# Entry
Amino acid sequence: MSDRTDAAATRRGIDPRGPRFTAGITALLLLVDAFLGLTGLSTSGDLATASLAERVADPAFVLLAIIAALFLWGVLSPRTAPWGALFRALVQPRLAPPTDLEDPRPPRFAQGVGLFVTVVGLLLHLVGVPWALPIAAAAAFIAAFLNAVFGLCLGCQLYLLLQRAGIVGRERPAV
# Structure
């Protein structure tokens, strides 16, 4: 690899500890949301008779909507997303430089998977499907927990499988 190629790879790479930090905060928020969902409207048996306004005002719904917005932010603008910015401003300067950098595409795809799971839970909750919201929060929690604690990013693994199949991450041919 030439020096120019090394510099380009460094600019595109991200510190792999950043997504794990983000996953830790996200896992904590999702754990709280799963608890709220288990103790709230979606599991009480009153969801079917609740009005749309009552479903939207459910604390578990509100928190999961905020988490979904954070996932969307991570997909659309990962450099400005709050947890990544917090990591870069407060945590990363106190750490030794990373030994290697990570391709930013798989973690960004993982944010999209988290967004998909949470939005499905939100929509099913709105239409009155019992248990949908805490199940979606729990599924997203498991993925975030595995990433934060063990460094196993399920969304990243899915991205790599889809990349091997030629579905995502294909380089555009030079014209």
Observations:
- The two ends are 23 Å apart (CA to CA).
- The first helix runs from residue 3 to 12.
